[in-house]
Predict the structure.
Amino acid sequence: MPVRDRERAFSELGLPAYSSWDEVRRAYSRLVKKYHPDTSRTGDPVAFGRVLEAYRTLSAINERDENLSSIFALGEQAVSGDSPRERAFACSRLGALGRRSAAGYLQRALFDGDEQVAITAANALGRIGVLSAAGSFTEAFYCATPRLRAAIINAACTIGPFACFRPLFIEALREPAPEWRKRALRMFLSIDASGRRTNGRSA
């Protein structure tokens, strides 16, 4: 969001730029009471609309900032939390947020020494649908336990049959579990030989 829009929104509410969220809420409440056509004798629908739009703008900024700080905090917890349970929980929450900016943390968590943390990270990466995880998936697959291998194949299949997953699907064809071999084979065969799906989108 352009800085001009942010500053205009603060100005509409009669606040200095970068006021706190509590100050924004108080100013909004005060101005709504002042300008709302149904609750004030001197109601001004135009001014009310500007106040409402300013509040929506600042609300979106606040929500985005909270998401970013939440992703950072959860990401740090996912890779360096004290207990495996705490790290797995953080990976799960990052996946539930659905933000691709969490992918770096989740890819690091794929190599956690605790199997459940790594499985949760693989599931979260599948939920987010990050193609850049293909290299990490393949690398982790080589040294993974059978349960983690299954989670990695499942996550890659969830993301889709893209050429970046070809090395992983080839490696998965050596998997002893027949259901995972079949799934990897189906995905491998789904990759368009002409390379139209190499970047994650059909041409």
Notes: The CA atoms of residues 106 and 148 lie 14 Å apart. The domain at 1-67 is CATH 1.10.287.110 (Helix Hairpins). The chain has a mean pLDDT of 84.
